[in-house]
Amino acid sequence: MIPIKDINPSSSTPIVTISIIIVCVLVFIYELFLGPYNEIFIRMFGVVPYEITHGVDVPPPNPLTPYGNLISYQYLHGGFLHIIGNMLFLWVFGDNVEDYFGRLKYFLFYTLCGIIAALIQVSVYPEATIPLIGASGSISGVLGAYMLLFPRAKIVTLIFIFIFISIVVIPAAVWIAIWFFIQFTSALISIDSLSMGGVAWFAHVGGFLAGIILTILFGPRRGRKREREIFGLKY
Fold first, then answer.
1. Is the pLDDT of residue 91 over 70?
2. What is the pTM of this model?
3. C-alpha angle 124-128-132 in degrees, rounded to nearest 5
4. CA pair distance 169, 155, nearest whole angstrom
5. How far is CA 188 from CA 113, 114, 191, 208, in A?
6. Beta strands in the chain (DSSP E)
7. What DSSP designation does 55 have?
8. Using an 8 Å Cβ cutoff, are 128 and 195 in contact?
9. CA distances (Å), 134 to each of 32, 35, 45, 77, 156, in order?
């Protein structure tokens, strides 16, 4: 399932969402110009679980310290499909969540979801030396917030079934629930792997759950009515 757009207009221009997309694209272009040195750049600014759990900086030296990489890794990507997929998801789902939180709070929410997502991945693979990169954990948090806040919004979706291609409209709660089911089952299947590699499934799961919890705990008062209607919460 590829989200094309959501039928859920926001009341403000998503300045932060657009800015994050621009920064990610610019960093990716810079990576392309690095050529064979890109691997060194990624090892410098990606999250290496071994560095986090042991408190050491494995060469190449990192100017941010390993813990600063919990932020910088969110703006690195490993290929065209990686960045296109992430930025598409952020574009479709980010504007309404930004509108709900407000710009500064949304940026802090986005960043914190990414940090928590990385730490979840690190906790599962504490000895891994493969760098974790990408905005997926942060965007998973945005999806968690979106499902909580706008479950009835419609997601225009491109679906591939073997050789058949179709465009359908799916409620956000259903769309994101299917997405999370795929992430969660993939994480369980990959848990027996001794080394982290490929897709960081646990970062997706951790970021998503962080997004839901942070939205409930720290969402602005003007949005609390929607949460109460969805969950019957009293606060």
1. yes
2. 0.89
3. 85
4. 5
5. 21, 20, 5, 16
6. 2-7, 154-161, 164-171
7. T
8. yes
9. 15, 18, 11, 5, 25
